[in-house]
Amino acid sequence: MSQPICAPATPLFPGAVAVVRVSGPALAVLLQPLVKLPAARRASLRTLAWDGFQEQALVLFFPAPASYTGEDVAEFHLHGNPLLVRRFLEHLGRLGIRLAEPGEFTRRALLNGKQTLLSAEALRDAIGAATDTQLRQAQARCGAVPAWVEAARGALSPWMARAEAAVDYGEEEGIGLDLDPMRIDLGGLRRTFHVEQKRAEAARWLRDGLRIALVGRPNAGKSTLFNTLAGEDRAIVTEVPGTTRDVLEVRAEWADLPLYLFDTAGLRHTEDPVERLGVARVAAVLEKADLILHLVPAMDPGPDPDILERLSPYEGKVLVVRNQADLAGGEGLRISAATGDLSALEGALKERFLGGLAPDACLGALATERQRALLDELVLQLELLFQLQEPCPPELPASVLQGLWTLLARLTGEDRAETALDQVFSGFCLGK
Ligand code: GDP
């Protein structure tokens, strides 16, 4: 039987209300010395008294199994004083209720079948989301196991049964496993996996955000673009070359894309010590950027050779953009940071990172590194089935099919590799 646990469910700052949650078996008995728990799911005002404190609290009781964790759960809505919360938790400790580890409530929910690992990860992402898109994407993953996962199980299970039968009784009963009908039948699954892989690759960027570094010669319009993308006047825009002396960073959402923007001091050789400091930091930013936007004014004959040279180690992730397209004609990916005409940039980013998918088309897609790794593995394993040559002992397809089944179980968390669980739940906050 699991130990009873407690934790603050709200941040420890002064505020109107602080919620403390308790989960465990037989809470009514355990909490008896402190409070008579109200009827199921009825909020009741109770006076909690301990150590000379008298707290009026709203108390809720969710008897097992109809609760977040699947165990008995009690919620105490105290006044929002962090000291009060601490004293209350200490008192719960004396009643034999220990402080929960981060994610322990959700972990119990998983073990009791109240959540899947997918919905638990989605919940963690929903709590951590910093932009509207990230929040929407995470929320869309919070519900049931994706339909395609269930469909995959439905498609695999009859072939698993046939493969097992062929392995167990094949020789004496003459039961074989013909690869071709199986492959025809699983063709749809193969396509589904590829679609989901594409969606997951896009959803990854929506979840993690794009790290975009802006570089270009002085007056190329970096600060202007930075501010337009960020939607606020963060960088100082000026006509004196070299005024952005350090790397400015801002988190923003633009065109439904979560961005980490880095405005750089440029990549010039410079004798100015302050500016040189900035140039050194730029190198670190370029290193970890997902994309380097090299802004080149439309009236320039082409990109600055000195900057091109310095960007050469990052060639694969450099995108040259012609800015100030309102002032001069020419070729290439043309924008105007000052007038806000950035449609070409939006198209280029969505093509490059989302594979041309609209953010809405990624709703519900797998997104975390763990999930994507498993999906890649699913694709590889399924390909193995399609590469098997006749004649082939039934043990081979049987073991590949079993492997696919296990991967799906690992994805949803039904196959509980403890290390994977530890990794997921270490990212949770206390009380979740
Ligand atoms: P930075 O040195 O690269 O950061 O360049 P700034 O963003 O400070 O821009 C330099 C000057 O160019 C400012 O006066 C901006 O208003 C102007 N500018 C930036 N982008 C555009 C553009 O797309 N069109 C026009 N007409 N002016 C721009």
Could you characterize the architecture of this molecule?
Helix content is about 45%, strand content about 20%. The chain is of the alpha/beta class and about 425 residues long. It has a six-stranded mixed sheet, with helices on one face. A five-stranded mixed sheet has the order 8-9-7-10-11, sandwiched between helices. Helix 11 (about 305-310) links the parallel strand 10 and strand 11. Helix 4 runs antiparallel to helix 5 (about 130-140), helix 5 (about 130-140) packs antiparallel against helix 8 (about 185-210) and helix 13 packs antiparallel against helix 14 (about 395-410). It starts with a strand and ends in a 6-residue tail after the last helix. The site of guanosine-5'-diphosphate has 19 residues, from helix 9.
Which small-molecule ligands are present, each listed once? guanosine-5'-diphosphate
Low-confidence stretches: none
Structural class based on helices, strands and sheet pairing: alpha/beta
**Count of individual beta strands:** 11
How would a textbook summarize the main sheet? 6 strands, mixed
Helicity range of the residues? 40-55%
Strand content: 15-25%
**SSE string, helix = H, strand = E?**
EEHEEEHEHHHHHHEHEEHEHEHHHH
> Helix segment count?
15
User: Residue-averaged pLDDT, rounded?
Assistant: 90
User: Could you tell me the radius of gyration in angstroms?
Assistant: 28 Å
Strand order of the biggest β-sheet:
3-4-5-2-1-6
Overall geometry: flat
How far apart, in Å, are the first and last alpha carbons? 20 Å
